[in-house]
Amino acid sequence: MRKILQISVLLLAANLILISLSAQLPKLPKALVFGNVTYATPSNADFKNISNHGLGYELGAGIGLGKTILTGSVGQISYNIPNGIYVNGTVVSSQPDHLKVTPLKIGIRKYLIAGLFLSGGLGVAIQKYDKYSATGSNFLYEAGAGFKLGFFEVGAAYTGYKLAGTSVNASSLLVKAGLAVKL
After folding, report:
1. For 75, which of 27, 58, 125, 160 could close a Cys bridge (C-beta 3.0–4.6 Å)?
2. Beta-ladder partners of 32
3. pTM of this structure
């Protein structure tokens, strides 16, 4: 009986020591790879007057420790411009068109609880119209939140930048859905 008690105390002490040591070890880096389909709805009045929606994709990766991951992504959103481009009542282009925006971003994704995450990013919006001759690259920002369940994720974000060839600030609400693998 005494030996059983001694072995039990020894196993309990060894278990506590291992738990204490494992808490002291550095956390292993986490890696993330993701791809999303994106639906964009212009959210400010000036951009709503030009475009009614956009559709695109985003591909990205990240690395971090614990629940905070540094991310980088690239994608493309094609905005439909059904009636031409009008800025403050002035016709810039009278033809229906498409605006292709290629966002290049770096950012942070912070996992909270049960797959819920917050994200933010800064970068550049490379813009080109199909017919209108203006092109440009402008500063871009994005803030959002989402939920990851297994390999699937959904999210929403708010993004903004200045439209190439105009004085219009383009802000959009983005709805994203896709796959994400966190290693």
Report:
1. 58
2. 62, 182
3. 0.79
